[in-house]
Amino acid sequence: MKILSTVGLTPAQRQLIESAAGGAEIVDRQCRSAEEMLAAAPGGCEILLGLRIPDEFVRKTPGLKWIQLLSAGADHALKGALAEAAGIALTTSSGIHATPIAEYTIASMLAYAHGFHRTLRAQLRGEWQRNAGFMDTVDALRGKTLGVVGYGSIGRETARIGAALGMEVLALKRNPADHLDAGWNPPGVGDPEGRIPRRWHGPGECAAMLAESDFVTVTLPGAPHTRGFIGAREIAAMRPHAYLVNIGRGSVIDQAALIRALAENRIGGAGLDVFEREPLEADSPLWAMENVILTPHMSGAFKDYNTAVCRLFADNLRRYGAGQPLLNLVDRATGY
């Protein structure tokens, strides 16, 4: 068995893989193109650890059986040659981002609730922004309702932290009757048994859930059936003071409808890490909106990212060697 990692591994990361690989040949080399990948493994490989999967590499590696992605999403990979290669198993790194993205999401909500989006701008202008009515602009998360659109590993960890802060949680998922999380998660993270939500909603009940939520987090992956999942109708159902955080994919929300609602103060604000087009266009009105906190698609970044991937990969390697089902196996019908 031959494993190709297209990221240069540290000795500790390589040891994690070697301990689970059962004597497999491991080639790790930072590769940025199909040519570099083919040069690193001229005889092909059975297992690939990487992010970008060039068509040429898939076509010229007939023995490829399994790809472990470094990303939580698979939408960028399920294209071209790989989309046609149904015999190649594809797994994601879903679960490793649960803690950093959940913390980012709650941080964005706290920043908005406590007015940091205004005071930071005032700081840059050198203004002491403390007028007679400032107390009416500050709120607390305790006692508020948190609506989680997409109750996967990230949504569950966000719910756990939100509940610890005293928030009431509502959850939406594709199959609301199935409360369990079968994906990979570090110990003590998330809500694997689905005990936190007060109520569960299905995809057709999104507007109803949003109408009850003071804060909303959107964690849906990019897929054809999630495109525009939150449109003008759903945004219109939101409370006038509601704050929405999107860390899933920009395509999930009708961005034009969201911009109109923000400009007209029909919702309180938004924290956006993903956009319909990235980088966000320089002339987008989102840049100048005081009720918007935006970041450049970085909510999942953290130190030792690749080490976390290697831990998950090692768990899957043990399963692969034992003939057991792989964790985070992508369902090609849904795209995640």
Structural descriptors:
12 strands, 11 helices, seven-stranded parallel β-sheet, 336 residues, Rossmann fold, 14% strand, 2 domains, alpha/beta
Oligomer: single chain
Number of domains: 2
**Termini gap:** 27 Å
- The class by helix and strand makeup works out as alpha/beta
SSE succession: EHEHEHEHEHHEHEEHEHEHEEH
Short description:
The protein contains eleven helices and twelve strands. The protein is of the alpha/beta class.
What does the model show?
By secondary structure, the chain is an alpha/beta fold. It folds into two domains: 2-96 and 302-322, 3-Layer(aba) Sandwich (Rossmann fold); 98-294, NAD(P)-binding Rossmann-like Domain (Rossmann fold, 3-Layer(aba) Sandwich). It has helices spanning 11-21, 34-40, 55-59, 80-84, 98-113, 116-125, 153-164, 206-210, 232-237, 255-263, 305-322, and strands at residues 2-5, 25-28, 47-50, 66-69, 89-91, 145-149, 168-172, 199-201, 215-218, 243-246, 269-272, 292-294. The strands form two sheets. The protein has a seven-stranded parallel sheet. The chain has a five-stranded parallel sheet with strand order 2-1-3-4-5, with no helix packed on it. The chain is elongated.
